[in-house]
Amino acid sequence: MRNEMMRRPVVKEDILTLIRDRQKKLTGKLGDIEREAREKGVPIIPHETVVFMQFLLGQLQPKHILEIGTAIGFSASLMAQTAGPDSHVTTIERFDVMSEQAKKNVAELSLENQITILEGQAADILPTLQGEYDFVFMDSAKAKYIDFLPDCLRLLKKKGVVMIDDVFQGGTVMHPVTEIHRSQRGIHRKLNELFDKVLTHEDLTTSLVPLGDGVLLITKEKDNVSL
């Protein structure tokens, strides 16, 4: 369950301590879920990304949020709480054990009316979704980001934001593929394909942020965008 890439910081250790350990902690039940997940090595977003997401959503004030990769429901609950009671999060999870834990956490946080968990493969579910989302968060299989992105952009409203987590592959994403362990080369190629497609795209505005194992932010500048 542990994400070993999170043990390979992409910023200096002292700066990592500053942004991960010294920023405001979560309180209440959501804070308890975060602490328990860290103790057990359950893969959730690192605390510096938690704080960044709170700040970003506080500015964007999204009402309709889509998440790919529910895990235990931590980030979905964080987004729902941060965006407020008028917001709604639709989140997709492929693993039964994760979705069951997510349902329990969502219930304990009394967020059942704000969070809808769709169980199944994102590749099957995304094409069936309609409507516009203000914010999309992807934190799933890294090799699938480039495959999921066209549907995410289709569903995203103009000037909406896609946030993609863990895009630096433990700081190795720009290393020659021959230096990457064979088990990780598929992910390496797919992440670089993602960068090639979006970073200089004329209809997208992007930003790479060295939080956790890297965050990619994407805004679309017109209604219909093709990759």
Highest CATH level, the class: Alpha Beta
pLDDT averaged over residues: 94
Tally the beta strands. Answer: 7
The CATH architecture term is 3-Layer(aba) Sandwich
Protein name: tRNA 5-hydroxyuridine methyltransferase
Function: Catalyzes the methylation of 5-hydroxyuridine (ho5U) to form 5-methoxyuridine (mo5U) at position 34 in tRNAs.
EC number: 2.1.1.-
Family: Belongs to the class I-like SAM-binding methyltransferase superfamily. Cation-dependent O-methyltransferase family.
Overview of this protein structure:
This is tRNA 5-hydroxyuridine methyltransferase. It is an enzyme of class 2 (transferase). Belongs to the class I-like SAM-binding methyltransferase superfamily. Cation-dependent O-methyltransferase family. GO terms for molecular function: O-methyltransferase activity; S-adenosylmethionine-dependent methyltransferase activity; tRNA (uridine) methyltransferase activity. Keywords: Methyltransferase, S-adenosyl-L-methionine, Transferase, tRNA processing. With about 230 residues, the protein is α/β, with parallel strands linked by helices. The chain has a single domain (about 5-220), classed as 3-Layer(aba) Sandwich (Rossmann fold). The chain contains eight helices and seven strands; from the N terminus they run αααβαβαβαβαβαββ. It has helices at about 15-20, 30-40, 45-60, 75-85, 95-110, 120-125, 145-155, 185-200, and strands spanning about 65-70, 90-95, 115-120, 135-140, 155-165, 205-210, 215-220. It has a seven-stranded mixed sheet with strand order 3-2-1-4-5-7-6, sandwiched between helices. Helix 7 links the parallel strand 4 and strand 5 (about 155-165). Helix 3 runs parallel beside helix 4 (about 75-85). It is globular and about 45 Å long.
